[in-house]
Design brief:
Largest sheet: 6 strands, parallel
Number of helices: 20
Shape: globular
Distance between the termini: 67 Å
Radius of gyration: 24 Å
Low-confidence stretches: none
Number of strands: 17
Length: 531
Amino acid sequence: MVTVARWILALLRARGAEVVFGLPGVHNLAFWEGERHPLVVRHEQAAVYAADGWARTTGTLGAAVVTTGPGAANAVAAFGEAAAAGSPVVLVASEIPQAQRRAGRLRGVLHESRDQAGLFRPLAKAVFTPRAPMEVATALEAATAAALRPPRGPVYVDVPADVLGLPAAKAQRADRSHTSTAATSDLDEVAGLLRDRRVVLWTGRGAVDEPDRIGALATRLGAPVVSSYGGRGCPPTDHPLAVGLPPHEPEVAALVGDADVLLAVGGDLDGMNTRNWTMPRPPLLATVDAAAAAEPPEWRADAAVHGTLGSALDGLLARLGGGDVKPWAPEGLRSAVLGRLRSDPATTEAVTLVDAVDAARTALTVLVCDMAVAGYWVGGYAAAPVPRSLAYPVGWGTLGFGLPAAIGVAATGRPALAVCGDGGIAMALGELATLVQEQLPVTVLVVDDGGYGMLRYDQERAGHVPVGTDLVTPDFGALAGAFGLPYTAVVGVGDLEPALAAAVRSGMPHLVRVPARLYPPRTTSPRWHED
């Protein structure tokens, strides 16, 4: 007999979540019956972060299963990060057995709550609460389709425990076509706006899978390309027109402001990428997106195209003709800015860290950055040799993302390098056991500054004595040894590269610790408006 739980797992895998992440509980044990059960993590938050890491790396569906009540509640923060990042994640939680539920009454049944799904409604793209096998089949088909349909986002489903073990039903497959044709008049309008003008091309997360078309469009327009965090690698940093730096640096901001038109493909003109919309903006804005945004944009476009990105970009290229425009922006901007930062005593050590990461990684390594000063530097300034090579929780800013998300990245087969602070990794130390148990190719780099370094900086900048930001941190060598995890201690950032390279290229889990107190980059909000 194929149970509802087994059918759910099979459907999730068929829709792209080849590895499902989860934590067993008394109400969802049906997911662990039979073969190909979910990959077990040590906290429900980690299960959803891992599913998010999978989705960001593959571009396909990510999925997690958790148990009722506290298990579901533990997943909320990670679910919110997936929402902020537009990650197509489906979270399936159990609910208390139908036989124990009484309408309108809270009886104190184990893990019972009045409205478990209500925890997720403010964050979810959609919520489904099926209560019978056929309802489950219909809901899961709809949930996976909704998560993947632009604009993408996480979907929540809960199923009573006594339904998970029932024989499965089958439902008609939901409409999964995500293609739409851009209006000819809209393409004409955008193309007309771009002709004979200086253009800066902006790539957001929606464009990340179109590096060839983006590169061709940039070449046709002679346009420098500035990427959001989600759009990094599109085009790769070594493309001659890729700026390869965040728009928060003054040279990049000036470049954007000097253009006549900002052509934004794939969104991400959000607060974190634009300094809360204070980034210099050209007089004209054109946008190309797969679908209209779920919320009205802060910046109104002068011309907009909505449609499948590949065909929309082909349409623009056809309308712009065959002759390439001479690039108008200066060459070597990335080298110049990194050189300036490297020569500044305040930021020398941080750029040395970025250099070490760039040298140590392989072409397929995915950088997974936590909300730490080291993560801000690597997330904003490291090279992106291919698309989908950076996972960074800048949308919701969830501390503790790095290690658990790297589990999802590594489960795809790509090696992961998680860049964490000593404060953030403390929120997920149990996942070191997951790395060892699953033998995942994850290198965890802990840049240890003895506390919450960014918050300490905020306090000192405000003229306050740091309170609550200096922490007791573990002996990371002893900790790694307790888990049976290979460990390397590095004296300083200047000595990091060879040790980090050896760890990354081993293809095995590894913990590397280096002490450093880094000065925050301009991508952090306290420094957005410095001269």
